[in-house]
Fold each of these.
Amino acid sequence: MTTISMQVNGKAVSGNVEGRTLLVGFLRDHLGLTGTHVGCDTSQCGACVVHVDGLAVKACTMFAAEAEGAEVTTIEGMAEPGAPLGPIQQAFQDHHGLQCGFCTPGMVMSAAALLREVPRPSEAQVRDYLEGNLCRCTGYHNIVRAILAAAETRGPQGEAQA
């Protein structure tokens, strides 16, 4: 067992894990943050995307110990409990960017990473960025619309507008 520590959604956390524990397992099983989904365990679906030190990472491909000392953000960290949805989450709701919801946390996390890198992406850029995220319900049209709408609610530098 190895003791690991990191910041998750702005809070210091630690735990004892086996060396083979994946970050997605640590988040779900040790911390109870079940918004990060396990869809394939092979890095194909993107349902497990989280941010590690600001970068979008598929949590099923990273050992928890590799996140030692890192700042990790999960879907639960995208809006405070009881607070209004974040702009990307609200855009997904407004533009029907979800159906069953299984892929949604990974899509939202990927969208946030894209909008941080490219505050005003084109439709082609959104579609290209989402290549590693699978949705079996929507056909992506409304997901893309939601991300483009979220980009419109952001300022010229990509910051969320009130």
Amino acid sequence: MASETTTVKEIPIEIKSAKKSIWLQMKKMKLLYVMLLFPAVMLFIFSYLPMYGVLIAFKNFSPGLGIWGSPWNNFEHFTRLFEDFLFIRALKNTLIISLLKIVIAFPAPIIFALLLNEIRNQKFLKVTQSISYLPHFMSWVILSAMIIEVFSPQRGIVNFIITAFDGDPINFLSSKVFFVPVLILTDIWKEIGYGAIIYLASIASVDPAQYEAAEMDGAGRFKKMIHITLPAIMPMVIILFILRLGGVLNAGFDQILNLYNPLVYEVADIIDTYVYRSGLEQFQFDYATAVGLFKNIIGIIFILGANAIIRRKSEHGIW
């Protein structure tokens, strides 16, 4: 009985000591917590407080009545979504462009990181990395102006090469056939270098002894890449792939808004540009909010579904 009493009495003491140690650690890192406070406040102000505005998706919003004073609409806007030809077209285009970017653009940084890892000349490696990173830090406004000039039918270098081989100039950005391929290629060009950074960091954590053991077994550079490097970065690939699936309805608003025109709406108008036109140009704030809310719900479903499937097949996942 005495031993049982002692055990019962010791439990609160252990809890107190654990709380005390956590408090001491927080005091030691108080400057870091102060630094964390600013982004946390900004996240709350700009990401969580505006969620109140989602209510207008369920109302016939009137600026004079305000959000709460506007009448409820019995899900009228969500019913209208699937009766609107323009929304159905935008949804189809979003899925096509986004899936093409996943299939073609998502593996590009992985392949690029594997290739960079094989470069032994450090000067050449640094120059290559710097050049590949640069487009990421430029806005699509600037890059779009460059792309428009490069693909211009009158003065673009691409059409100059085509005409040099006796071809006819092509207006790539006004063609329903070529516009989407241009989107995919320019997206890869912009993000391939920066996207490779996280994979290079994962590769750097691989134990060099594994490569040495593989060399002793007669493995060449390609086999070491396939059997050592690629499995090492696979957990990161899976996590980023799940997050990318969560944004499957984000097909690249900035890029498309700065490059598209009415001639290619049929293949280039996506949900985000549709929301932009409906909300800001046509002042249908309630309907545009409903479209945006629908998009976000689909994104959450994709993240949860992809994570659940991958967790069943492997030990990797977001949670």
Amino acid sequence: MEEETVETPHGPARVHLTTVDEPIGALVLGHGAGGGVTAPDLQAAAKVATGLGLVVALVEQPYRVAGRRSPAPAKQLDAAWHAVVEQLRAGPMKGLDIVTGGRSSGARVACRTAIGVGAVAVLCLAFPLRPPGRTKDGQPKPSRLEELDGAGVPTLVVQGERDTFGMPPEAPGRQVVVVDGDHSLKKDMARIRATIEAWLPTVVGRAG
């Protein structure tokens, strides 16, 4: 695995890149709001992808590189993500179909930017559909379903059955796989790996 710094409009991002011989595609994954790229589900997805012949980049957003745990605003996250994917597309992922994704907040970024960065598909690990709890006036907090619906490309959602952020619905072009566990997706790693392993070849490296 190689580590490199990529400049973005909001400071340097850090990319952990794993290359393969004769790649059939590429996978770019982002982390959760307060976490990093060492999350078990991200690591599992990366390992599966490289085993299938994909170049993999795990991306640390600039706020995390700067040592902050509180996430940047959505527009900044999206702009930094665009910059990173653009540079990967011009370099180690040149000419490859690119699947983007991430866990939790990273999945939201991938959905919001999929069309803009030219992703062929999106992998969502623990998509945070609706924050738990209620607003000050007792109403449910706003849903992020519009972001998920707006991905515009084939999407796989892997969601823990006890995720307090809720369960996204299936829809045309969107597969939702429910696994044992909660929002951390740490429990049913075998099912998570098998699900990703079955799905990735359907969206990259296809004949014709």
